[in-house]
Structure formats: C-alpha cells, structure tokens
Amino acid sequence: AQRVTQPEKLLSVFKGAPVELKCNYSYSGSPELFWYVQYSRQRLQLLLRHISRESIKGFTADLNKGETSFHLKKPFAQEEDSAMYYCALRKWNNAGNMLTFGGGTRLMVKP
Amino acid sequence: NAGVMQNPRHLVRRRGQEARLRCSPMKGHSHVYWYRQLPEEGLKFMVYLQKENIIDESGMPKERFSAEFPKEGPSILRIQQVVRGDSAAYFCASSPPAGPVQTFGSGTRLTVV
Fold this sequence. Notes:
Shape of chain A: globular
Order of helices and strands of chain B: EEEEEEEEEEE
Distance between the termini of chain B: 36 Å
Number of strands of chain B: 11
Structural class of chain A: mainly beta
Largest interface: A-B, 23 and 27 residues
Oligomer: heterodimer
Number of helices of chain B: 0
Helix content of chain A: under 10%
Number of strands of chain A: 11
Strand content of chain A: over 45%
Radius of gyration of chain A: 14 Å
C-alpha cells in the first residue's frame, strides 16, 4: 500500500533561516511526487513536482529513491512562506489518477 | 477559465439536517476528487469520481455520506443527518483525464450547530 508521511506537524523557524520540510513515502511502483501549499484560508495550490525539477518561490525538492524521501527545502525562509505544506504521491490504478496526501506540516516563519 | 468552483463557501446546518456541497470542475476536467480537512488536521481523501461513475470511495464514511457526478451539472457531496463531528472544510479538486495535477477549489466550510 502506498503511504506518505510528513513527520512534523509544525515547524517554526526565524526569518532568514534555512527550512526543510520532510516527506517520506512508500510505494511499490515508480513514484511521482508533488508539494502543495495552502496559505491561510486559501485553496491548495501546486508548489512543485519532482518531474519538473524546478525551483518555485525559492523552494526545491529532490526525489531520493534510496531514502524514499522528497524533502522540501529553502535556504532562507521568508515570513510570507508561513503556510500549510502537503506532500503528495500520485497513484495510478486501472481507472485513473489519484493523489495520496501526507498529513501536512504547518510552517511558521517568525520575524 | 474560472477554475474549480465550490459553493457555498460557508454552510451552517443543525444536527440532523442534510448538507449538500457542490463542485464544478475546471473546463475540460472530467475527474473530480473530494477531500475533508478537519480542524487542525491534514487533508484526507474521500472519493474520486468521473462523470456518472465512482472510481474510488475508499475514504468515504460508510454511512450518511454519498457523492455523485452526473452527466450534466456539478458534482455533489451529500451528508445526511449531520453531526457535530462533520464540521470541517471540504475541498474539491479536478483534473483532466490523463493529467497528474489536481486543481483545487476554495472549499466549503461546514459548521454543524
């Protein structure tokens, strides 16, 4: 069975400090992973996909198949990064396309 | 493109009433997903639908909850005989048939009093 684990419910850092939000997954197939972000009382938005290998708002995430991880990193946190972050794993089944989400990590960036 | 539209944004129901939450997917999207976010908790998958077809409802509570996505019109998540524990934010997402990215709506916040 596939599973996404975000071990930290809350991560609090000071502005300018590095940030790493952890995500571990278990999946028997070839994984496709995403990070979604939810700012206060707003809809979830796609932040980045591992396939794209891009940096969005200074965030990057590298898929490590050996460690089954997809941690989200930013070298210098900003106050506007405060939000809820969800790691998600795409699952294909016979009928189509689903995402399994981790429990989420709330990032608080203090001034 | 208006994006994924959910209504109402806020819904208040008394215990025992029915709640109906609507979701209109993005233009060109034929797959709809419903998620529930309980206060101070993460996002939990409920059900995945295509037009006139439930693909996966493994996250739906066995009783009182149902979902549909008719040939015409929005997807509906129906909760019968609501209880206080149903108070949550309910999010809908949609995707194109082969697309991996789900686009989310703004959610419906259900409060049961």
